[in-house]
């Protein structure tokens, strides 16, 4: 192994990288457990890429054949059930990890100066992951996915001014059809991966250049001259990371075997909407909020108010580093902590309520 | 200290063994996944119903088309015809009757001719016809 | 007379001449084509103008026939007396038996029909004479149906025309126009002396046949004429019912003919399934419960028929239960992602056997029914095997997963130990 590295070093001069790896450390303090979430998110995304590429070998992206091809994968291809279920479960775990990573970074105020761009690329990555989830969900072309997409793209139509155009753009037409499937397929395997590569590259570049952020109290103590021990990234931290990744693999395999994803029935555009249709859990809070809003608020349609509200919340989330002046000065920022708790409680509560309501 | 050293070496080799075995446990399913399965491809549009030499003139045989039965018929003149073998009356499976060269449903005596049209009996609609092609020795039946 | 008034008179006279000439020539030009129609169409009384208007769309009119071809008379004159002069062949409005003779003049003549519609039959009048309608008409009853009643005298449409009163979906309403009218049917009796019922149409509308014909567009479904005959309409007699129903329901008729019931029940199929209100049959009809039809005659366990009915119903129920259970098993396997295509095909076969079993019931022989049910049960046992095999494959996957999970967890434990030992080594080596 060492010989191979030397061979490459002679040609490429890896001295900078070697130095970097040797020096890279992770600060040790009580909150360091949250550092693992970023790596976990990245790992689960890599699992998605690998399982996705494997599924790509057999999947057929047309309304006539999509369902049958997934059925074929699950029933005829050896271990097809395993790959498909891992892909479906890992998608959910990935979104869970992204959300956990977001909240941990938020509460630790790691978005503060100089890490504003890391935060922005991160939030954009959250939106991209949600896009992956939404587009991938339609690909098996089953009943549930078809109607969930119909409802979801219909909500996009509630955006003021550009809503109709947006809906037509997403659907590839006026209704959810094979054209929608083609579009979502392109999104899912080409457009979003390209965008993700870019965003992740920038995100990781920043993390490597700036090192790990520390909680504000620790930063204040550091400013006062206190020294904190560092855990060497390689091999200590990376082994712990790998450990957690293996636990994730074990969890995925167990979920794939004991709670396999159902395929359901093939989508039929002319069938009536099955009762109690609702999106996947990560959209449930937003969806249920829209359901709870009254039909008109101050003369404006309730749905429009909801969608605009979400848009403003998303914008707010993106701009948090610039809005939180106190954290930028490394000062405790209880207002934003409270906002974060409020957001978390709202998200969890609405998800649970939305789930129980159906 | 020798004892400590042994334990570390032991741990390292255990680690190595564990790593390799888990890698194999993950690589094996992926490798089997990559090998194309025997059934070829999803039955959405077409299926190999039979070998051409198996189907004698004035005979019919049932085959599997997706999740439904299909009927492959070779007429007295040697022409191949294929139909969806589900009777349009009450979904019984039809069969070929060689003595009258017609397709017959045993349930209520429905009779169809070799174009799938209803000759007599309760069926309200003709049998759905499928497209037959020959690829070497394979008789390939596809949806119309 | 002044010069002006003379000129005025001349102009007026000239105009009158021109107008008269035009009018006469117009009438002269029209007379060969229109004849009777030109007068009758303009009459205010609907019973006189109706036929003329209706005849425009008549199939006979298409072929070049005119009023005079049935009614006789002179079509070339506008004068009513001359047009309807019996000396010129005018026959007037045919009534009673005259209607049949008028139509039959062409429709029973092979040479004529060959010229105009070679595919049509020419025995309608002869058939009609054998029917109840025909025989009553011959004895002077003017209330019965004649050719004109069903086909309409003017504005006759082809039978294939969906607007024709004799088109399959319209036949029942047509017959009901008399047969459901209590006033009209007063005085008519059946052979036994009882009054002819007038509820047939209402009953028929409850039936599966009516449903198939009107709601499912199945034109092969029977309506009045399919069982009672067309022109020779008479209710099927004793002993003929089975044949009539058996025209379509051939297998049932054959099986029934082998059974003991065919010797006992004169009314055959009608006995259990009714004649007009033929409802969808269900398994509830057979059995030993009070709702079952068998119970009407067979009561008590000492009755061999009662025992047989119980056995047959039990047999069918057994097959149905097994079918339902296997459906569920295969659905479960399919939902879990297992390949069960062959088993699903076999389930189709088993369903076919259930349909065949219900047909076999009409032989009223428990042994033959058991044979069919046994075939179904055999297929289902194969399905059950396949389904269980799929589920055990599922279990095998889970077991296989436990093993690899074990390998992974072993590795995780080893890794954790390694991490801890590294931590200890770092603690040992770190400067205090």
Question: Which helices and strands, and how do they pair?
Answer:
The complex is a heterotrimer of chains A (358), B (144) and C (432).
Chain A: H1 2-12, H2 15-23, E1 25-27, H3 36-56, H4 66-75, H5 80-107, H6 116-138, H7 143-156, H8 163-171, H9 178-210, H10 216-223, E2 230-232, H11 233-258, H12 281-292, E3 296-297, E4 300-301, H13 302-323, H14 325-328, H15 334-357
Antiparallel strand pairs in A: 1-2, 3-4
Helix pairs in contact in A: 3-5, 3-11, 4-5, 5-6, 5-11, 6-9, 6-13, 7-8, 12-13, 12-15
Chain B: H1 2-34, E1 46-51, E2 59-65, E3 68-74, E4 80-84, E5 95-97, E6 102-105, E7 110-112, E8 118-120, E9 129-135, E10 138-142
Antiparallel strand pairs in B: 1-10, 2-3, 3-4, 4-9, 5-6, 6-7, 7-8, 9-10
Chain C: H1 3-34, H2 36-40, H3 46-55, H4 59-62, H5 67-71, H6 80-83, H7 97-107, H8 110-116, H9 124-130, H10 132-138, H11 147-151, H12 168-179, H13 200-204, H14 208-214, H15 224-228, H16 241-246, H17 250-258, H18 261-264, H19 269-273, H20 304-335, H21 341-360, H22 366-429
Helix pairs in contact in C: 9-10, 20-21, 20-22, 21-22
């Amino acid at each position: 192994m060492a010989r191979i590295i030397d061979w490459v070093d002679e040609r490429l001069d890896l001295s900078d990288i070697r130095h970097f790896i040797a020096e890279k450390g992770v600060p040790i303090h009580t909150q360091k457990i949250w550092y693992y979430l970023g790596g976990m998110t990245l790992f689960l995304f890599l699992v998605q890429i690998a399982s996705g590429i494997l599924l790509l070998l057999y999947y057929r992206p047309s309304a006539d054949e999509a369902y049958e091809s997934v059925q074929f994968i699950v029933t005829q291809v050896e271990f097809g059930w395993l790959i498909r279920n891992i892909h479906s479960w890992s998608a959910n775990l990935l979104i869970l990890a992204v959300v956990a990573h977001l909240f941990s970074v938020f509460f630790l105020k790691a978005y503060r100066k100089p890490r504003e761009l890391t935060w922005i690329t991160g939030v954009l990555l959250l939106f991209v992951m949600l896009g992956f989830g939404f587009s991938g969900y339609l690909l098996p072309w089953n009943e549930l996915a078809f109607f969930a997409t119909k409802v979801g793209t219909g909500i996009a139509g509630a955006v003021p001014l550009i809503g109709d155009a947006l809906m037509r753009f997403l659907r590839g037409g006026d209704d959810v059809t094979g054209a929608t499937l083609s579009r979502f397929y392109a999104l899912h395997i080409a457009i979003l991966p390209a965008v993700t590569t870019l965003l992740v590259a920038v995100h990781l570049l920043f993390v490597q250049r700036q090192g790990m952020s520390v909680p504000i109290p620790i930063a204040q103590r550091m400013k006062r001259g206190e020294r904190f021990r560092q855990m060497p990234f390689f091999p200590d931290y990376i082994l712990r990371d790998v450990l957690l990744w293996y636990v994730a693999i074990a969890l995925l395999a167990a979920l794939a075997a004991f709670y396999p994803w159902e395929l359901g029935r093939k989508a039929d555009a002319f069938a009536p909407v099955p009762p109690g249709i609702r999106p996947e859990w990560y959209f449930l809070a937003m969806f249920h909020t829209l359901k709870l809003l009254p039909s008109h608020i101050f003369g404006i349609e309730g749905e429009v108010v909801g969608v605009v509200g979400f848009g403003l919340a998303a914008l707010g989330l993106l701009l948090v580093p610039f809005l939180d002046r106190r954290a930028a000065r490394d000062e405790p920022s209880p207002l934003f902590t409270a906002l974060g708790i409020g957001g978390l409680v709202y998200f969890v509560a609405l998800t649970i309520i939305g789930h129980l309501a159906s | 200290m020798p004892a400590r050293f042994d334990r570390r070496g032991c741990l390292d080799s255990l680690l190595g063994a564990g790593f390799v075995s888990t890698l194999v446990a993950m690589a094996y399913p992926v490798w089997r996944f990559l090998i194309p399965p025997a059934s070829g491809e999803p039955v959405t549009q077409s299926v190999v119903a039979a070998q051409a030499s198996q189907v004698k003139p004035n005979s019919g045989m049932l085959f599997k088309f997706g999740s439904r039965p299909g009927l492959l018929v070779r007429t007295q003149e040697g022409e191949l015809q294929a139909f969806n073998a589900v009777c349009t009356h009450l979904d019984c499976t039809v069969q070929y009757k060689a003595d009258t060269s017609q397709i017959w449903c045993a349930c209520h005596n429905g009779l169809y001719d070799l174009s799938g049209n209803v000759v007599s009996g309760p069926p309200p609609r003709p049998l759905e016809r499928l497209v037959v092609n020959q690829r070497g020795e394979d008789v390939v039946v596809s949806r119309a | 007379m002044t010069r002006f008034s003379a000129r005025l008179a001349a102009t007026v006279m000239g105009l009158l001449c021109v107008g008269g000439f035009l009018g006469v020539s117009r009438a002269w030009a029209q007379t060969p084509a229109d004849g009777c129609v030109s007068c009758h169409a303009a009459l205010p009384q609907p019973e006189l103008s109706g036929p003329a208007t209706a005849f425009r769309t008549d199939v006979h009119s298409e072929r070049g026939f005119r009023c005079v071809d049935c009614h006789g008379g002179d079509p070339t004159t506008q004068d009513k007396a001359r047009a309807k002069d019996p000396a010129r062949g005018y026959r007037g409005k045919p009534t009673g038996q005259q209607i049949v003779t008028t139509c039959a003049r062409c429709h029973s003549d092979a040479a004529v029909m060959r010229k105009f519609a070679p595919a049509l039959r020419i025995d309608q009048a002869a058939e009609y004479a054998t029917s109840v309608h025909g025989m009553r008409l011959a004895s002077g009853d003017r209330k019965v149906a004649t050719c004109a009643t069903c086909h309409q005298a003017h504005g006759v449409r082809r039978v294939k025309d969906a607007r024709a009163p004799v088109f399959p979906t319209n036949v029942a309403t047509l017959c009901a126009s008399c047969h459901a009218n209590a006033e009209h049917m007063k005085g008519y009796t059946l052979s036994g002396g009882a009054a002819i019922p007038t509820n047939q149409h209402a009953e028929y509308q409850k039936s599966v046949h009516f449903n198939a014909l009107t709601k499912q567009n199945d034109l092969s479904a029977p309506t009045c004429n399919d069982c009672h005959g067309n022109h020779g309409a008479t209710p099927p007699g004793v002993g003929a019912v089975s044949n009539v129903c058996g025209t379509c329901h051939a297998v049932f008729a054959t099986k029934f003919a082998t059974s003991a019931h065919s010797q006992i029940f004169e009314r055959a199929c009608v006995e259990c399934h009714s004649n007009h209100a033929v409802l969808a049959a269900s398994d509830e009809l057979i059995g030993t419960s009070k709702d079952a039809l068998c119970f009407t005659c067979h009561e008590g366990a000492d009755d061999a028929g009662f025992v047989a009915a119980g056995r047959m119903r039990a047999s069918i129920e057994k097959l149905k239960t097994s079918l339902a259970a296997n459906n569920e098993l295969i659905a479960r396997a399919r939902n879990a992602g297992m390949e069960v295509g062959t088993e699903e095909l076999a389930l189709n076969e088993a369903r076919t056997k259930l349909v065949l079993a219900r047909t076999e019931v009409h032989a009223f022989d428990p042994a033959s029914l058991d044979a069919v049910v046994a075939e179904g049960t055999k297929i289902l046992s194969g399905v059950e095997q396949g389904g269980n095999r799929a589920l055990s494959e599922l279990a095998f996957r889970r077991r296989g997963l436990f093993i690899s999970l074990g390998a992974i967890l072993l590795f995780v434990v080893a890794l954790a130990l390694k991490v801890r030992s590294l931590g200890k080594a770092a603690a040992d080596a770190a400067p205090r």
